[in-house]
Amino acid sequence: MKMSRSKKKRPIGGISSEKEDKRLYNRRYRRACKQVLHASPECELLPHLREYSDPWAMDKDGKIWFDPEKYPKEMRK
């Protein structure tokens, strides 16, 4: 019995990833949370994630069309 695989409907993908930006933003956010909790451990209100990250400032260069027959692995979700 063959397992089903999710496939993209259109052969389009991002040019570069935002992995490094996400890593830096999350590191900043975790540091801020630790500082707030260290200053007052009973504090229930933590900083909002959007105070330390901006999705519009991340390094994605856009999207590009590719040949699905040449790159079949890129059609997987």
List its traits:
elongated, alpha+beta, 77 residues
Tell me what you see in this structure.
The model has no long low-confidence stretch (mean pLDDT 85). 0% of the residues are buried. With 77 residues, this protein is α+β, with helices and mostly antiparallel strands. The protein has 1 helix and 2 strands. The chain is elongated. A two-stranded antiparallel sheet has the order 1-2. It has one helix at residues 19-39; strands spanning 12-14, 63-65.
Characterize the main sheet.
Answer: 2 strands, antiparallel
Number of helical segments with 4 or more residues: 1
Q: Give helix and strand order, one letter per element, not per position.
A: EHE
Q: What structural category do the secondary elements indicate?
A: alpha+beta
Radius of gyration, rounded? 19 Å
On the 0-100 scale, what is the average pLDDT? 85
Give the strand content. Answer: 5-15%
Q: Could you name the ranges where pLDDT drops below 50 across 5 or more consecutive residues? A: none
Strand order of the largest sheet: 1-2
Please tell me what the overall shape is. Answer: elongated
Distance between the termini: 21 Å
Write down the oligomeric state. single chain
Count of extended strands: 2
Helix content: 25-40%
Summarize, please.
The protein has one helix at residues 19-39, and strands at 12-14, 63-65. The protein is of the alpha+beta class. Strands 1-2 form a two-stranded antiparallel ribbon.
